[in-house]
Amino acid sequence: MTSLLDVRELHVTYRAGHGEVPAVRGVDLSLDPGGTLGLAGESGSGKSTVALALLRLLPESARIGGQVLLEGENVLDMRWGRLRAVRWVGAAIVFQGAMHSLNPVKRIGDQIAEPMAIHGTVPANRIPGRVAELLGQVGLPASRTRDYPHQLSGGQRQRVMIAMALACEPRLVIADEATTALDVMIQAQILALLKRLVAEQGIGMLMISHDLSVLAATCDRVAVMYAGRVVEQGPAREVVHEPAHPYASALSAAFPRIGDPASRLAPRGLPGDPPDPADPPPGCVFRPRCAVAETVCATVDPPLWPVDPDPAGNSARHAACVHVGPARPLTTARDGGTP
Ligand SMILES: Nc1ncnc2c1ncn2[C@@H]1O[C@H](COP(=O)(O)OP(=O)(O)OP(=O)(O)O)[C@@H](O)[C@H]1O
């Protein structure tokens, strides 16, 4: 089966006034049709840069390398015409903060209709009916079609963004912190809605959040990013509830579970700060904040090793930590050591 999305060795570097910022450093991700993959990590770990790179929405200051295969076709090699055709239809993005993404002077029905009109996915005379249907799918009455964004609550506006993203029936939806700005109850409703819609319509979803509990509630698989790299990935339940990488473990402990009364409390946050992406420490980049770091971690930058591999060496889960890999790698893996 061809993957819906196959990201291989993705690198993104921003040119900034003070030099270069390597925001994404060799990320591999894979998503099957209809699957749900969560991408977690603290602010600045590179999640949004990955999301934007998938549809080449990065600013001009960004240099991208690697491959982004969407249904086998490399997005990074597409001509502009092909890329425009793929956006909304092949893959659509729902961003955080619908108030800023929606046009304040345009009725929401017209905004939901726009991608369908531009891409010609629905005949013009059927668009109003499809808008009403999409509003129904996201739990809004068709009567709201003539409303302007300011007449809707934050949660309702986010539902409109989801309706827009679904309008052209994309095979992939990328939800970047799509529920972060909402209160806990509305957040849970929108997550349940997204989960139901992707399951019913067989859409693949890449969901980005700094909050692992959000991803645990929504996704089959989770990848955790730290300083531009994936440090652990595997089945959501295992990565979130029995993390193998010390960073995934710290991130998991930092957020109360969804549905837990304590979830109304502010997250505790992780001690210490992420490294300066322009000047990461040698060895494992998480070492300065790691509670279980050893001397070897100052020199070894571990690749993703299988966690609990079967006798054939296969594993559904991988983590980039010397405590996970075979006995003790003696060379810097990226300098030639083998996992
Ligand atoms: N346009 C830009 N120019 C220069 N550096 C940038 C730019 N956008 C992001 N960065 C830097 O790239 C790194 C990754 O940022 P990114 O926004 O992808 O992380 P994130 O995990 O999505 O964080 P957040 O949740 O805060 O958006 C950070 O160090 C950030 O400062």
UniProtKB/TrEMBL annotation:
<keyword id="KW-1003">Cell membrane</keyword>
<keyword id="KW-0813">Transport</keyword>
<keyword id="KW-0547">Nucleotide-binding</keyword>
<keyword id="KW-0472">Membrane</keyword>
<dbReference type="InterPro" id="IPR027417">
    <property type="entry name" value="P-loop_NTPase"/>
</dbReference>
<dbReference type="Pfam" id="PF08352">
    <property type="entry name" value="oligo_HPY"/>
</dbReference>
<feature type="region of interest" description="Disordered">
    <location>
        <begin position="262"/>
        <end position="282"/>
    </location>
</feature>
<dbReference type="GO" id="GO:0005524">
    <property type="term" value="F:ATP binding"/>
</dbReference>
<dbReference type="InterPro" id="IPR050388">
    <property type="entry name" value="ABC_Ni/Peptide_Import"/>
</dbReference>
<comment type="similarity">
    <text>Belongs to the ABC transporter superfamily.</text>
</comment>
<protein>
    <submittedName>
        <fullName>ABC transporter ATP-binding protein</fullName>
    </submittedName>
</protein>
<feature type="compositionally biased region" description="Pro residues">
    <location>
        <begin position="272"/>
        <end position="282"/>
    </location>
</feature>
<keyword id="KW-0067">ATP-binding</keyword>
<feature type="domain" description="ABC transporter">
    <location>
        <begin position="7"/>
        <end position="252"/>
    </location>
</feature>
<dbReference type="Pfam" id="PF00005">
    <property type="entry name" value="ABC_tran"/>
</dbReference>
<dbReference type="InterPro" id="IPR003593">
    <property type="entry name" value="AAA+_ATPase"/>
</dbReference>
<dbReference type="InterPro" id="IPR017871">
    <property type="entry name" value="ABC_transporter-like_CS"/>
</dbReference>
<dbReference type="InterPro" id="IPR013563">
    <property type="entry name" value="Oligopep_ABC_C"/>
</dbReference>
<dbReference type="InterPro" id="IPR003439">
    <property type="entry name" value="ABC_transporter-like_ATP-bd"/>
</dbReference>
